[in-house]
């Protein structure tokens, strides 16, 4: 019997009958006791962005092969990208393609010729407070001021070298 089969008396049954243990475990797993109190906090995962060399082929892949809902391409000249959003229910994918000579994703696509995961975007409840605290903590913010992002809300990007190798976008919820 599988460990996930309740009739087997396996893992699921044990989890269901031992809630106090779960709470203890999850507290220690997520180090919630050590999160400092802050004036701002993270919210939902808004999207995961994927840089692609061929936007139409990528759109067709998500729409026709994986069967998801895919938006039209939108040009965002102030960000140097075209974007397409793929609806997933609990979050979105953002397909990115370079726009203009100085696109910030051009060198990424040169290094990753078939495309690749470019950034994650997490919502925050107070982007100004986030900027202030992250600057104090010496996390590099990649613009002087928040810019208006793909959803018409202020966004900032944090340097991937200060975020364990991942480019992180924060969006005002
Ligand atoms: C519409 C909006 C929205 O969603 O609301 C958007 O998506 S706009 C999406 C596009 N906009 C942005 O990405 C804005 C923020 N991005 C930037 O400012 C830039 O792309 C940087 C992240 C600073 C990278 O700049 P650039 O490509 O000129 O530098 P570079 O190629 O020399 O890279 C410096 C180092 O960072 C690494 N690196 C570069 N891009 C990376 C990425 N996306 N994820 C993880 N690491 C990355 C490189 O491999 C390199 O490491 P090594 O030295 O070890 O080789």
Automatic annotation (TrEMBL):
Cellular component annotations (GO), alphabetically ordered: mitochondrion
Gene Ontology MF terms: metal ion binding; methylmalonyl-CoA epimerase activity
Keyword terms: Cobalt, Isomerase, Metal-binding
InterPro entries: Glyas_Bleomycin-R_OHBP_Dase, MeMalonyl-CoA_epimerase, MMCE/EMCE_epimerase, VOC_core
Domain spans labelled VOC: 44-173
Reaction(s) the record says it catalyses: (R)-methylmalonyl-CoA = (S)-methylmalonyl-CoA
GO biological process: L-methylmalonyl-CoA metabolic process
Broad class of enzyme this protein falls into: isomerase
Enzyme Commission number(s): 5.1.99.1
The keyword Isomerase belongs to this UniProt entry's keyword annotation: yes
NCBIfam families: metmalonyl_epim (TIGR03081)
Function, in words: Methylmalonyl-CoA epimerase involved in propionyl-CoA metabolism.
Family according to the record: Belongs to the methylmalonyl-CoA epimerase family.
Protein name: Methylmalonyl-CoA epimerase, mitochondrial
